[in-house]
Design a protein that fits this description.
9 strands; five-stranded mixed beta sheet; alpha+beta; flat; four-stranded antiparallel beta sheet; 8 helices; Nucleotidyltransferase, domain 5; single chain; 304 residues
């Protein structure tokens, strides 16, 4: 459809209520839209506003899922996955209904869009979506039992004075027991609020822990650069250097010191990319203890 006369589209945002009303009126004239007011419920997401900020959860979606599969009275558990639980394929195990397994995973993947705490567990069981066995279904059941005890968990976006982009990155060198590939993981914060997270298996087998770690750092920096560009488009540019928290001092030292090239010849591209961002001051890499490393929730099964 062609826009109405005098209407110009701008991919922008703002808080000018008069201009917003004009936009709504012109859009209504052309497309017959209806203003439903502030967002409260959309596609299973519940949005609540308060003086502190905005919270997003899928409480009703979670309870409906448990009711649908008959687990409303199941025994709850404290964690979505057992510590050191490395699921593997096994021909000696009993296969389960493939369609039911896939349908449950589809619902859980959608739920994980607001639940960082179950992302690792879901990525673990998703590896066996084509040939699920009893032990894999038991791991899915553990996730559901965890949801029984935590239906209200979600995201909270608080008002604060922090105007910086932060990321926590981590990797598990040769963590996959099936192909020994490493997995890069990161979660990012904009102005102190969690906005994105990702767990991605690396394309090739890393020959050293340094290679796996620099791959993870590279992925986190790219995400921060993208977020910074988004904020510039929204006229919310921050002049503070972006922070990339990491829990390996040796990796941080090598990133800052190009002399140690013998240990990093096989990761020169990633190392030079990171060093360039350090040199121009757009990013800094502070150390964070493993006990305070938020990305660990995407790396392994953790105790309560």
């Amino acid at each position: 459809m062609t826009p109405p006369p005098g209407f110009e589209a701008h991919w922008d945002s703002g808080n000018d209520s008069i201009e917003i009303d004009k936009l709504k009126q012109k859009m209504a004239e052309e497309f017959g839209i209806k203003d439903l007011g502030n967002l409260r419920y959309f596609l299973g997401m519940e949005v609540a506003r308060s003086k502190e900020g905005i919270s997003v959860s899928k409480r009703k979606y979670t309870l409906d899922l448990l009711r649908e599969i008959g687990m409303t009275r199941c025994k709850p558990t404290d964690t979505p996955v057992e510590v050191n639980n490395n699921l593997v394929e096994s021909v000696d195990d009993i296969p389960v209904n493939k369609k039911r397994y896939q349908r449950l995973l589809g619902k859980l993947i959608y739920l994980s869009h607001t639940r960082l705490d179950i992302s690792y567990a879901i990525s673990l069981v998703s590896q066996f979506i084509q040939s699920p066995y009893v032990r894999h279904m038991e791991a899915v059941t553990q996730i559901l039992r965890y949801l029984k005890s935590t239906p209200r968990k979600g995201l909270v976006f608080r008002k604060n004075d922090r105007r910086c982009i932060e990321a926590y990155t981590d990797s598990d060198w040769a963590g996959s027991v099936t192909d020994r590939k490493s997995t890069s993981r990161y979660c990012t914060f904009v102005w102190g609020n969690l906005v994105t997270w990702r767990s991605k298996k690396q394309g090739v087998v890393a020959r050293s822990s340094a290679e796996a770690e620099y791959g993870a750092m590279n992925l986190g920096i790219c995400e921060e650069i993208w977020l910074k560009k988004v904020l510039v488009d929204l006229h919310q540019e921050s002049h503070h250097p972006m922070r990339l928290y990491y829990d390996n001092k040796a990796t941080i030292n090598i990133a800052n010191n190009p002399i140690q090239h013998d240990r990093t010849k096989h990761v020169e591209i990633d190392r030079h990319f990171i060093k360039e961002k350090l040199d121009n001051g757009s990013i800094c890499i502070p150390y964070v203890p493993s006990s305070q490393h938020i990305a660990d929730v995407l790396t392994k099964g953790l105790p309560r």
